[in-house]
Design brief:
The complex is a heterodimer of chains A (298) and B (456). Chain A has 298 residues and is of the alpha+beta class. In chain A, 39% of the residues lie in helices and 11% in strands. With 456 residues, chain B is of the alpha/beta class. Chain B contains 13 helices and 17 strands. The chains are: A alpha+beta (298), B alpha/beta (456). At the A-B interface, helix 5 of A face strand 16 and helix 13 of B.
């Protein structure tokens, strides 16, 4: 009885030692050399594994960043400049400071602005809906309202507004990872410069139809009239395919375009609430370009 | 003995309530809107300008590539505009708008009703005529027919199958065509048979249309006495089952051969053409008449009078609906095509295309989406799938964006028949999800093939 127990212990111990020795030599022989900096970089990453940088996760980003000769193509949009500076310090690279970005929904087709022409009762998914048809309003470019952007957001930064039927971005939570931009089958969401003191001006419409068609489908559509292009003193606005687009790098936030837009398609965000001063200014600014055009024609 | 395909399939209620209504010619509308994208492949290029006078049957757009087709004016009048217009799904398509003036036809079109049974011997001339008359497959896919009738070198067609199954519920336009223009269909079949150089042609008809089966048999016997060119044509009764009229299902049922994944029917020696296509080929070759009109079933349980109409291509759907007595008060959904594969109309101002087969009005209880619950893994969708796929698995893979898994499980082979969705007791919208996944996988396969071709 005792002998059995003793022998068992002896055999197991010897076996364990032999296997440990084998494992030790194999580990020595086939050791994978890994750059210790990968672990260091990973430690300073946000750890959300959102894929916003274009890699599978934070570890994959760290591996790529260590391998790359510089940091030009690798940027963590979630961590932003502070994290990238830490990464640069570990790797000894220089990092270009990028402007903080935020997701912007370029559709203004609220239930009021965009009357429904039909009802969709299928699967609540923009991807599926877009494969079937162009949407339940006259506008074939606008938001489908099924909330694919909401479900892909890993930071809980987008929610659907039940009153307007449009997604709303919470800019304090948005990390500009770009998941919603990829998820939107209509390409409505864009990453834009957050702007100084979070002030920004953008065209909230991507309707490429001709003015009359766009206007019929949605009261707040960009009709491609070009008034904003003429008004902009900084050459920041371009008009392509009947849609105006504001280049945020050139825009100086003067808001003259907001005042002249006849449909209100240009939005200004986070500016102080309009006081009387602004409301007085509005008609004055509208008049000037009209007069100008009349003069040049005459 | 009736035949059918070997796996899957369902049998929805037939509801062929318009079967006794003979095809009536609908008055020509004031304006037609003819899209240049009426077929699979490259859109046609307009060859008329705004202000041009056109006559019925005159070509107004030429093929934009090899897989493309001519488009003809379906009316006589003046070209009012050429520009984007919304189609059935609301997408912008280049459309030629023609305002109707008079009823003048191109001179070389034979407008008489006389049956021409003498088939010309020159196959090349026949193919050219099919091409210039803009004939496309009218079974639904609208694939240019001249391309289908020119098999790639090294591949030989053994059996020609003429698809008269019309397995979709409600649709009756093919049935009426067989009953009223059976002779023309058989002559059209003989023309295709001669072009392909095959000895055997099978007209497949579901056994829920016994009149059509006996009628077609009689015609074939009658024509066989006229010329040996009508030999080898037979009628094959099929068991009424959906999707009997699917190309791959029909080949399986008639020839007991399976087309492999990504393959074409010609790989197993088959060419499938629809009844309406056979008629269009007859019109093109014997009468010189391009596709300018097609028969459309206007039906629905809520409609007072069912109709089979001969409608000019490019007629706005709203005009047809007005002619049929307006949209019924209790109709909640209008479908272009059959209830299984047709598409809901979101824009009633859209115009008909060559391939439009029906306008169907559905009422609220018919279209109601039932509350979706969890998959109970009963396997009914896999049992119903005529392609032998596992829809429950594809649904799950698609929701997880697993592209490799989707391709490994052949999502690209889905024919979008809707049997899975029809049979699901948990009301899971399987097809809606799989359709999107299929498009994505096909895109990936195409991109891969393109990259491989470039690297060579």
């Amino acid at each position: 009885m005792i002998a059995t127990i003793v022998w068992t212990i002896v055999i197991i111990t010897v076996l364990g030692l032999v296997l440990a020795a084998i494992l030790y030599f194999i580990a020595k022989r086939f050791k994978v050399e890994e750059d210790p900096r990968i672990d260091e970089v990973e430690a300073v990453m946000p750890g959300a594994n959102c894929g916003g940088c274009g890699f599978a996760g934070c570890r994959a980003f760290a591996e790529a960043a260590v391998k790359a000769p510089n940091l030009d193509n690798n940027y963590c949009p979630v961590g932003g400049n502070p994290v990238m500076q830490k990464v640069a310090a570990i790797l000894g690279y220089e990092v270009k400071e990028k402007l903080p970005m935020v997701a912007v929904v370029r559709c203004n087709g609220t239930c009021e602005n965009r009357p429904r022409t039909n009802y969709y009762d299928g699967l609540k998914s923009c991807k599926v809906k877009a494969a079937l048809y162009t949407g339940d309003t006259g506008c074939s470019f606008g938001c489908l309202g099924c909330g694919d952007c909401v479900s892909v957001c890993k930071f809980d930064a987008i929610s659907m507004d039940p009153d307007t039927g449009l997604p709303v971005v919470d800019e304090t939570k948005c990390t500009a990872c770009g998941a919603c931009v990829k998820a939107c089958p209509k390409g409505i969401i864009e990453l834009r410069n957050k702007g100084p003191r979070n002030l920004r001006v953008f065209v909230s419409c991507i309707n490429k139809d001709k003015g009359a068609v766009a206007r019929k489908a949605c009261k707040a559509a960009c009709i491609g009239c070009g008034l904003c292009v003429k008004t902009c003193p900084h050459d920041a606005i371009t008009l392509v395919d009947n849609v105006a687009y504001i280049d945020y790098e050139k825009c100086k936030l003067c808001r003259k375009c907001v005042a002249v837009c006849p449909t209100g398609a240009i939005h200004d965000v986070n500016f102080p609430k309009p006081v009387e001063r602004v409301s007085k200014q509005k008609p004055a600014v509208v008049k000037t370009p009209v007069e100008k055009t009349v003069k040049t024609e005459a | 003995m009736s035949h059918t395909f070997s796996i899957g399939g369902i049998h929805p209620g037939e509801r062929k309530i318009s079967r006794d209504c003979s095809i009536e010619a609908m008055p020509v509308p004031d304006t037609v809107y003819i899209s240049v994208a009426q077929h699979i492949g490259a859109p046609a290029k307009p060859i008329v300008a705004v202000g041009d006078k056109v006559v019925t049957g005159q070509p107004i757009a030429e093929p934009g590539g090899f897989v493309s087709a001519y488009i003809h004016s379906s009316v006589s009048g003046t070209v009012k505009s050429i520009g984007p217009r919304k189609d059935l799904a609301g997408k912008q398509q280049t459309t030629i708008e023609i305002s109707v003036e008079g009823d003048e036809w191109a001179e070389d079109i034979d407008r008489t009703d006389s049956l021409v049974t003498v088939i010309p011997d020159d196959n090349k001339a026949i193919l050219e005529k099919i091409r210039t008359c803009g004939v496309v497959g009218l079974g639904g896919a609208t694939f240019p027919t001249h391309v289908k009738l020119s098999p790639p070198p090294g591949k030989k067609c053994e059996t020609l199958i003429i698809n008269g199954c019309e397995c979709e519920p409600y649709l009756t336009s093919d049935f009426r065509t067989m009953m009223e223009k059976g002779e023309q269909v058989v002559v059209g079949t003989a023309i295709i048979k001669q072009v392909l150089g095959v000895d055997k042609a099978v007209i497949a008809i579901e056994d829920n249309k016994p009149e059509a089966i006996s009628h077609m048999k009689e015609i074939i016997e009658k024509l066989f006495k006229l010329s040996s060119k009508f030999s080898g044509i037979s009628v094959m009764p099929m068991i009424s089952k959906y999707p009997e009229g699917g190309e791959k299902q029909l080949i399986d049922a008639v020839m007991h051969r399976q087309v492999k994944s990504g393959g074409l029917p010609i790989d197993v020696g088959a060419v499938v053409q629809n009844i309406a296509t056979a008629l269009a080929i007859y019109d093109a070759v014997q009468k010189n008449k391009p596709i300018i009109e097609n028969s459309i079933t206007v039906t629905g349980d809520c409609l007072e009078k069912q109709r089979n109409l001969m409608v000019r291509v490019g007629t706005p759907l709203s005009y047809i609906m007005d002619y049929a007595g307006g949209i019924p008060a209790d109709a909640v959904k209008i479908i272009s095509g059959g209830p299984m594969m047709g598409k809901a109309v979101s824009n009633p101002d859209a115009a008909t295309l060559k391939g439009t087969s029906a306008i169907l009005f559905l009422t609220s209880p018919q279209t109601e989406r039932k509350i979706q619950s969890q998959c109970i893994r009963c396997g009914r969708c896999a049992e119903a799938c005529p392609m032998g796929l596992e829809p429950f698995l594809l649904n799950k893979l698609a929701l997880n964006d697993d592209d490799e898994g989707l391709e490994a499980n052949a999502a690209q082979d889905c024919i979008e028949c809707g049997c899975c969705l029809y049979s699901c007791p948990a009301n899971i919208p399987l097809l809606d999800v799989i359709r999107v996944a299929k498009a994505k996988i096909l895109g990936i396969i195409k991109a891969r093939a393109k990259a491989a071709a470039q690297s060579k």
